Amino acid sequence: MARRKKIYEGKAKILYEGPEPGTIVQYFKDDATAFNAEKRQVIEGKGVLNNRLSEFFMTGLNAIGVPTHFIKRLNMREQLVRAVEIIPLEIVVRNVAAGSLAKRLGMEEGADLPRPIVEYYYKDDKLGDPLVTEEHIAAFGWASQADMDDMVALALRVNDYLSGLMYGVGIKLVDFKIEVGRVYDGDFQRLIVADEISPDSCRLWDMETGKKLDKDVFRRDLGNLADAYTEVAQRLGVMPKQATQMGKPRLIN
Ligand SMILES: Nc1ncnc2c1ncn2[C@@H]1O[C@H](COP(=O)(O)OP(=O)(O)OP(=O)(O)O)[C@@H](O)[C@H]1O
Ligand SMILES: [Mg+2]
Q: What is the average pLDDT across 153-166?
């Protein structure tokens, strides 16, 4: 068997060359990292859950006409995606004050924001992914003004879709981040949603109790991360609520 070509290994995923030009296989690892990888742990099952959940969200987005890189899931840990030129930005949408926004502006975590707020962070681990404005993005040529308009439109559509989906299962979508990438179709080029959408990249709070069901469980040592992600998957119907009980082997005759 020929070895696959590894293109990139990140903190949460490995990228392999796909079976056809312009495709990539994304392998979801069990590694959890936070605070720019200062804190790390292997959480058994996380990769499987994120692979499934990202498939679920991206399939739904594709179906309502929000373009994503997702093509199909290959197995428990891998999915086939369209190769893109990643824009070096994380696009964050916030509905409720939390995390760095709450800290930066001295707001209480949990305060509803007057409207969804879109922010850009420059993807650079050495710098700790700093907040940047459209001025920086245009001046340094990371994306054009038209790209930024498209990125904001994509991010807000993802927000509408995802917050509705979560609301339906009693979960508040506090905030999330997406990455987008450029694809070329002949004379045309456009931006599509890439990377992953999973509880690693969202803040999800139970609407009744406020219980956290996202990576903050790991960041803040609030319990078992895989249990939290399993709960999200079960509520969304992505994983069965009751795992079928394996009976003891029975002797026949
Ligand atoms: N469709 C795609 N085509 C090309 N690259 C992609 C695609 N989707 C995601 N990526 C990139 O693949 C990598 C996924 O790996 P991972 O999420 O583990 O990275 P990371 O450790 O978070 O590092 P990074 O700072 O590069 O995001 C990211 O760099 C992401 O930008
Ligand atoms: Mg990443």
A: 98
